[in-house]
Amino acid sequence: MAEPSNEGSSMVDKVKEKVEDALPTRSKKQEKKDKKAAEKAVKKEQYAKEGSAAPKKAPKAVSIEPTVVRDPDAMFKEGWLDEVRKERPAKDVYTRFPPEPNGYLHIGHSKAIAVNFGFARYHGGKCYLRFDDTNPEAEEEKFFSAIEDIIAWLGFKPYKITYSSDNFDRLYDLAEKLILRDGAYICECNDEQIKDQRGGTDEKNKHPRYACKHRDRPVDESLAEFRAMRDGKYKPKEAFLRMKQDDFKTGNPQMWDLAAYRIIDEPAHHRTGKKWRIYPTYDFTHCLCDSFEGITHSLCTVEFINSRESYEWLCDAVEVYKPMQREYGRLNLTGTIMSKRKIARLVKEGKVFDWDDPRLYTLVALRRRGVPPGAILSFVNELGVTTARSNIQTVRFESSVRKYLEMTVPRLMVVIDPIKVIIDNLPEDYVEEVENTFGPKNVEMGSHMLPFTRTVYIERDDFRETASKDFFRLAPGASVGLLKVTYPITCTSFKKDDATGLVTEIRATLDTPAEGETFKKPKSYIHWVAESPKHNSPVKVDARVFNPLFKSENPETVEPDFMADIREDSLVTYSNALAEVGLTEIQRRAPWPEEAGEANDGAEGAHGEVKKPGPESVRFQAMRVGYFCMDKETTADKIILNRIVGLKEDSGKAA
Ligand SMILES: Nc1ncnc2c1ncn2[C@@H]1O[C@H](COP(=O)(O)OP(=O)(O)OP(=O)(O)O)[C@@H](O)[C@H]1O
Ligand SMILES: NC(=O)CC[C@H](N)C(=O)O
């Protein structure tokens, strides 16, 4: 059997000979082909000499194909957001994204970010990032910077970063103004009394709503008591400022004399320290801060629909500019949990690494898992914006991410659970250089060379100890193609470890056709990596594969609680995984894809600092396995990969 070999005359010589033989009859097309072959041979020769320092094509990382992502402005051009714009066609659009700095943002917030920042950007307006920091009990410094970072990562830059607390003096003055206009009073009722005033249908409070006895307090008394409340006369819950709304007449609970100010003694506020011991409520603060900032369209989620009435009532009552509040449907993902309290429990009980564990749906987790920011925005855009709540399965999100990655990240081979294959009919020092394209669907991504040698590794799943008609991969006596290698291999024998029962080594032959014999194409091709110390191949990696964290679609409804719904196999780590040498180039050329929010071309972060793409921007498709990125725990000695999504939808939830 003739063995393919690099021995004897060099490949460059061989190609030159071929070119010269063909000279008299060469067509233009052939000429081009031959020139390419000669160039390739030079490249191969250089590669063989220099080991891993292979010549690299380094075209720019490609941008998103229009076929992959629908018009990124579609959600603003049509539907609900278009209607909102028509309702108030202000010349200068001002919006705001107003998170409470009491936790990490989740996938639902990406909709609010896309809606508010995106609406302003689309209309040439401005969007504030306003920290709604009126509850010092729940706020922490780390959440402020995490929120700013994630907004910058999504590709948005706030017009200004503001804090509701910036307005505490102004809000206090308006509270006094409201009292003076007989629009608020100091109430000393406790929680139970307030509940009773609301009436209802329960046995306990089966009676009509009624007003509290403090409602008719003289204005002067309320003003004096408000000041006393500010100055420390009352303990928390002993008194609060209550708005005098509509005398409990309407059926809207947001109009039943809401609280405007309450006492919070501890802890100190992160910005105003111990200056205040009374803090304005959301209902008093939000509309007035919107007003101070000249917000034209205050876009929030549907659970605030009843608040619209109190929002407008207060702006009118203190005679300030009145923005327009409109409400869109929340984005909710099923099969996971988003509640801060519940995620905190998962972290505390060690069920996940931290808030950025790739199995969670916080934005820091999705970022670490390798989901590109553009894929998140594209998902939100695909769903569109209406007033209906979107309950979306995580598989739908993953399918959107997969679609986005398909055209935008390069490909290479990684064997996550390897078995060694020795190809007996190749010489010990055999090295053939094989070309692998980074982007079979996008030639601009270029290609790279990798070695094919006598010892290769294939995926454990691609081998069976007994051949059968329905198995087209490797088995004793059966042959299979190795991707990018001309001839297939046939398994001749294998060894097993008696203790573990696992196959440890496969022996095979390369089926090079004898002269005159025709080459039979194998039924299937599998991925592989070769052993070649000279080329630093293979590259050892840890590959983490994530399954859903929960067994059911509704972990919140599981008894006794969501903790009982956790899957044991939500994280599977393959510690002996092997990647081919192309990984080095993919790492060097990151970010993949090169897009808004991750560019390292001097783009600015939230504070004007130059943004650097993180390790998660090293993204690629491991052929036949899934999409992966590099984890932040990667060190110079150990590369850790996270699976972003599989190549196709997982068969389902664990039993
Ligand atoms: N699931 C969601 N879908 C769309 N927008 C959301 C969602 N959750 C929050 N938002 C919006 O994000 C903005 C800032 O959110 P904030 O942190 O104050 O919300 P939240 O309701 O406390 O969130 P959560 O309790 O879910 O963490 C608000 O305008 C809010 O309406
Ligand atoms: N109007 C809104 O967007 C609400 C924001 C507010 N921080 C909240 O969710 O409680």
Could you describe the 3D structure shown?
By secondary structure, the protein is of the alpha/beta class. Among the domains are: 76-328, HUPs (Rossmann fold, 3-Layer(aba) Sandwich), CATH 3.40.50.620; 334-411 and 541-646, Ribosomal Protein L25, Chain P (Beta Barrel). It is 27% helix and 21% strand. It is built from 16 helices and 27 strands. The protein has a seven-stranded mixed sheet with strand order 12-25-26-27-23-24-13. Bound molecules: adenosine-5'-triphosphate and glutamine. Adenosine-5'-triphosphate binds next to helix 5, strand 8 and strand 10.
How is the secondary structure organized here?
Layout (H helix, E strand, L loop, with lengths): L10 H12 L5 H23 L23 H4 L1 H9 L6 E4 L9 H16 L3 E6 L9 H13 L7 E3 L4 H13 L3 E4 L3 H7 L21 H12 L9 E4 L15 E5 L14 E3 L1 H11 L4 E5 L5 H11 L6 E5 L2 E4 L5 H9 L14 H7 L3 H11 L6 E4 H15 L2 E2 L1 E2 L2 E6 L7 E7 L9 E7 L1 E5 L19 E4 L6 E8 L6 E8 L14 E2 L1 E3 L8 E8 L24 E9 L2 H7 L30 E4 L3 E5 L8 E8 L9
Parallel strand pairs: 1-2, 2-3, 8-9, 10-11, 12-25, 14-20, 18-21, 23-27
Antiparallel strand pairs: 4-5, 5-6, 6-7, 13-24, 14-17, 15-16, 17-22, 18-19, 19-20, 23-24, 25-26, 26-27
Helix pairs in contact: 1-2, 5-14, 10-11, 14-15
Bound molecules: adenosine-5'-triphosphate and glutamine (GLN).
The site of adenosine-5'-triphosphate has 16 residues, from helix 5, strand 8 and strand 10.
EC number: 6.1.1.18
Keywords: Ligase
Protein name: Glutaminyl-tRNA synthetase
